[in-house]
Amino acid sequence: MELSILKHTGEDTGKKVTLSDAIFDIEPNDHAIYLDVKQRLANARQGTHKSKERAEISGSTRKIKKQKGTGTARAGSIKSPIFKGGGRVFGPTPRDYSFKLNKKVKRLARMSALTYKAKDQMISVLEGFSFDAPKTKSYKEMLSKLSFDSIKTLLVLPENDKNIFLASRNIQNTQVLTVDNLNTYDVLHADRILFVEGSVEKLDNLLK
Questions:
Q1: What is the pTM of this model?
Q2: What ranges does the record give for the region Disordered, renumbered to this chain (predicted)?
């Protein structure tokens, strides 16, 4: 697939770049995408939920009524789960939700997500650029000139650029990543993926 390379001001440079079929035109694997997104969301969970069971409740252990003759069920403690203020039965306890996923599955998921975006023509390539200062106004002007200011965008840089990152940080529905940190969840979440020219070649070396 060939794409025109645009300047960050929205003008066509006249140059073209070829997206590798081995990455952007494979047979997508939906289950790999599901597993990769599931792992990312699971790893983001804190797992600090906790409720007190009857052994952890403060209260008297005195038997609250006699065993027989009351006409109601026997009860031995005010901390019983059937009473108000009692402990919870099988309540949540702290746990780790993260799980392992093979690198090849994660790689397949990323390529599958990129293939979907390529087929839907949601990928653009920009000529290498930088800002003189980390100004939010500069980044917003760039999105406006590219006509992407009203959609969710993901800018993929070949290397970390502090000015670009800081300029985009306060803009809603905008994300900036280096190609090393590109992941399936963020690819799917974006309406338009903007690859800076050098990141395409680096992605080829990373995923092939």
A1: 0.83
A2: 44-77
